[in-house]
Amino acid sequence: MTNINNNKDVNLKNPFEVKTPETLTPDDIASLFVNVFTDFPRLLSAEHTFLHGPRGSGKSMMLRYLEPKVQLAAHEVKDTNELKHFAIHMPIKKASYSLSELERLSGSPYDLLAEHFLITNAIKHILESILELSISSITSLNEIKTFSKKINKLAKGSGSSFEISIAELTCQDKLIQEVIELFDHETMLAKNYIRNLAFEAVLRPYNEALFGYDDFFLPFIKLVKKLSSTPNGPIYLMIDDADNLTVRMQKVLNGWVSYRSTNDICLKVSTQQRYKTWRTSQGILIESPHDFSEIDIRQVYTSKQSGHYYDRVFQIVSRRLELSGFTNTDPNLFFPTNPAQDTKIEKIKLQIKTKWEEGNGISSRKSDDVIRYTTSEYMKELASTKKKNMYSYAGFKSLVNLSSGMIRNFLEPAAIMYSDVVASGSTNGIEHIPYEIQNSVLYNWSQEYMLNGFDKLEQDELNKQTSVNSQDAITIFNDSTKTEKIKNLITALGESFQQKLLSEDTERRYISFMLSSEPDAELADILNTAVEWGYLQRSTIARKEGIGRNILYILNRRLAPYFKLDASGYAAHLSITPDMLLIAMSSPRAFVRERFKDGTKSKASLAQQRLF
Predict the structure, then answer these.
(1) How many helical (H) and strand (E) elements, i.e. helices and strands, does the chain have?
(2) 25 CB contacts (<8 Å, ≥6 apart)?
(3) pLDDT (tens digit per residue) in 537-579
(4) Which residues pair with 34 in a beta bridge?
(5) Which of 146, 126, 134 is nearest to 229 (CA)?
(6) Chain center to CA of 554
(7) Which of 184, 207, 511, 530 makes the best surface tag, with the fewest CB within 10 Å?
(8) Residue 117 near residue 109, CB atoms below 8 Å
(9) Phi, psi dihedrals of residue 385, rounded to the nearest 5°
(10) Lowest mean pLDDT among 250-254, 467-471, 535-539
């Protein structure tokens, strides 16, 4: 039994509460962080790195864990001088970087001002991090004065007229704040300039400071590294959610990646799968591994490493239960399964084993028959009594499967479940989340994603259509129906997978498909948008010919309760032609009817299956 300690305040704290990593303190990050990804050590290497993954997959937590204050709080080091890098978290928010006035410019004027904005924002994050290191107790006043003088001289060389009051200030922190004021001032001047362009027919010269990467930012970085208060090694500038930048700003950032500057600064760039270009403003292509390395944490669940994901979620949940005061922190006890369903499933397993032992099995191994057909037979039993909605998705392992490799997709429904238990009056010691509450929340959570999630997608597409810029070269196909096409596609897939699950076929557990040939531009755009919004996940699979790999699309397991699917895994995938997907986007029923018109057990259908 799991009980909360006697401290009543703990009862009011939701152990699964999801907070944006930016709002967490260094102590919070240090306490909550668990190394979920085997690729985490690769992030520490002194090279430019792109970190790809959907929202909620843990990218920001990984980046923030590298910050000096967090490393100290986590007792990874005793002093910042022990750190081999100086990590700076720089979140990209659309409001700060998507400057509509700036988009009126083209060519060099745009490139110069866009880089200026990126640099001033990066510098302010670096200086604010230096302030957090309590430099007044580490670095002497004379050292900070010298640092401030050199920065001021460097800025004047780039055209700044701002004068730091070095002689008048006798406090290290105030001197650094004055340096920050310099860059706030230059940012304001640039913003005022581009705002005034809206009222001018002719482009006038920009007569204020312009900071470039090579002639200003790199010299600034070298000065920061020399401070006795900063960690040893290169600066890791962690640019979080870089796909929020416009395409042209992404090109400016790519220009930074092309520099061989990793001895002084390494760019750690996270994206949510929407990074649109790998070219610089000069049209030069940056390539991996020549210019940067890539970490794709989307593969953590779609690859054969999925078992490790279960173990890491187990660690995360255990840690959260422990921090919230629970004495028994076993997630399997906290999220129990439905015992009545467990009993029935065990009975079906025994029947399958007996059938195999009598020589009537399907697979060459008894365990394979049990894995492949147990859930199918139980689902068919429920369907025959019109009780498909009675299938229970409760249980820790089931919640892990439904999260589809994104820890936030575990924590969000778990937080709702916990709140529902508290709201029911269980405030004197929550021992576990009843399976009935788990099931209710999961069905609603899945339905909300299918029914209401597309409203958000439609609004986003409308906003994109009104704000699209010709310089970004974004093409929109039938935006009035794009959302409807994606919804139809997901519906067609979900219903097809359910039909396979309830069939008598050799392979029944489907949740993925592979395109048999290259899609056209519109279909590719539809699929990319479905991946971007999380309805599909993208992986790869080896071709039958043995050369190259094909793209595999996996339905988000969060949709399993909505479509009544087995979320525990998949043994095969459907091979679908682009033409069939076009039918799916138009009419889900027509797709299902056409896909299985010869019966789900036809030889052609079985020939298109590929075992993992």
Answers:
(1) 26, 9
(2) none
(3) 888 777 666 566 778 899 999 999 999 999 987 767 888 999 9
(4) none
(5) 134
(6) 16
(7) 207
(8) no
(9) -105, 15
(10) 467-471
Cα Dmax for the chain = 93
How would you list the strands of the sheet with 536-542, edge to edge?
536-542, 549-555, 510-515, 572-576
- Report the distance separating Cα 64 and Cα 241, nearest Å: 13
Six-digit token pair at 32? 């909550």
Task: Say yes or no to pLDDT of 245 above 70.
Answer: yes
pTM for the complete prediction?
A: 0.82
Which residues lie closer than 8 Å to 41 by C-beta, 6 or more apart? none
Residue 371 CA to residue 394 CA, distance in Å, equals: 18
Q: Which of 47-51, 381-385, 486-490 has the lowest mean pLDDT?
A: 381-385
**Residue among 83, 123, 87, 114 nearest 220 (CA):** 123
Contact 240, 60 (CB under 8 A): yes
Instruction: Annotate 125-173 with three-state secondary structure.
Output: HHHHHHHHCCHHHCCCHHHHHHHHHHHHHHHHHCCCCCCCCCCCCCCHH
Alpha carbon distances (Å) from 433 to 38, 71, 345, 439, 577: 30, 34, 21, 10, 44
Structure tokens of 528?
């990319």
Where are any strands of DSSP class E within 510-606? 510-515, 536-542, 549-555, 572-576
